[in-house]
Amino acid sequence: MENNRIDLLIHNIGTLITMQGTQEPRRGDEMSEVAAVRRGSVAITDGIIIAVGTEEEVLAQIAELPVTHKHDAEGKLVTPGLIDPHTHLVHGGSRENELALKLKGASYLEILAQGGGILSTVRSTRQASEEELYVKAKKSLDTMLSYGVTTAEAKSGYGLTLEDELKQLRVTRKLDQEHPVDLVSTFMGAHMVPEEYKGRSQEFVQLLIEEMLPEVKRQGLAEFCDVFCEHGVFSVEESEQILLAAKAMGFGLKIHADEIEPIGGAQLAGKMGCISAEHLIAASDEGLEAMQRAGVIAVCLPATSFNLRLKHHARARKMIEIGLPVALSTDYNPGSSPTESIQLVMTLGCLNLGLTPEEVLTAVTINAAHAIGKADTIGSLEAGKQADLVIFNAENLAYLPYHFGINHVHSVFKQGKMVVSDGNLIH
């Protein structure tokens, strides 16, 4: 063994869930295979896992190496750090005024048509300074961390002008540099046609392709490009134009597909080879099968359908039956899913999507890591990967979604450093 010391040894773990086993996104029955170890231990040096397994196995592997620090997990449950692969983290304002409209029966698209929804947040985001956006987003990121999230994706899409989109993306970059939670940045200028381009969507598409995408790429502000492919937003044809241009520039591809109506977004995700397609509440069998053939990951957002009071949810069981990898995410945003709680999403994944606790954990760890292109470094606890892990106030996995509405996190370690202790942030 090349290491001459162990920085941190986490021991006396009651149940250690490693998610070891496959290098590919988990499909079908694989989503139930979480590799649980009783009386586990994890050895960490320089923020990287050196050994993981039973205490006996780990102690044998590290042999006589000196251990700088030991942490007693007190028989609790330990999992990989949770990953939130779809958020709209950086935005101005809030939209609690829309709650009354929803209670009176107004739909998501009806609120949007009245100038609310995304367009309302666009106005607030344009008015906000970069510092104001940073402070607001940091507060949400702190909450995510306290709930066990160690990596999250963050989309732009509330600026819809070049400068306001860049403003959002710069905030994401600064948070990634300064906050313990790692952020993966997605450019989503194609979140909505702004009011000033109403009736001229093709002109806005050209602006995205000719000015916004090249500048975002030049400044290195995003890894992925996303587009909202939906009736009244961007058509399948417009979405394909944008994604083709983004692909040519070297962006990874994502798509908001078939959230409200089955217009063919899932099929487009398969055709374009997107890394993931998000929402999928109304996706057809044909669309899901196209995604499965292309290896697209389905990112389901049960808190969104819950909050929008939709009668139907993404068909996660169908997805698993046909071999489509499933990830879960909060979709944190100020309108359709104003929650930072990945643990709530885990419960909804069980109750509304019909997933087992094992499938849910797979969906917020290794499959979520694949959905943002980071599975080589995070998403499971194994030698050589980043030491991101969560200690829960629970004895077993099923207790997390079963006892809902509270925060089960005891401690969080990010790259081997404790950042949450006894439920409190310490960074």
Summarize the structure.
InterPro entries: Amidohydro-rel (IPR006680), HutI (IPR005920), Metal-dep_hydrolase_composite (IPR011059), Metal_Hydrolase (IPR032466). It is found in: Cytoplasm. With 427 residues, this protein is α/β, with parallel strands linked by helices.
Throw out a few tags for this protein.
alpha/beta; Urease, subunit C, domain 1; TIM Barrel; 2 domains; 8-stranded parallel β-sheet; 17 strands; Metal-dep_hydrolase_composite; zinc; Imidazolonepropionase; hydrolase
Overall description:
The protein has 427 residues and is an alpha/beta fold. It has two domains: 122 residues, Urease, subunit C, domain 1 (Roll); 290 residues, TIM Barrel (Alpha-Beta Barrel). It is 36% helix and 23% strand. The protein contains 16 helices and 17 strands. The strands form two sheets. Strands 1, 2, 3, 4, 5, 14, 15, 16 and 17 form a nine-stranded mixed beta sheet that branches. The protein has an eight-stranded parallel beta sheet with strand order 6-7-8-9-10-11-12-13. Helix 10 links the parallel strand 11 and strand 12. Helix 5 crosses helix 6, helix 7 packs parallel to helix 8 and helix 9 runs parallel beside helix 10. The protein is globular and about 70 Å long. It starts with 5 loop residues before the first strand and ends with a strand. The model has no long low-confidence stretch (mean pLDDT 96).
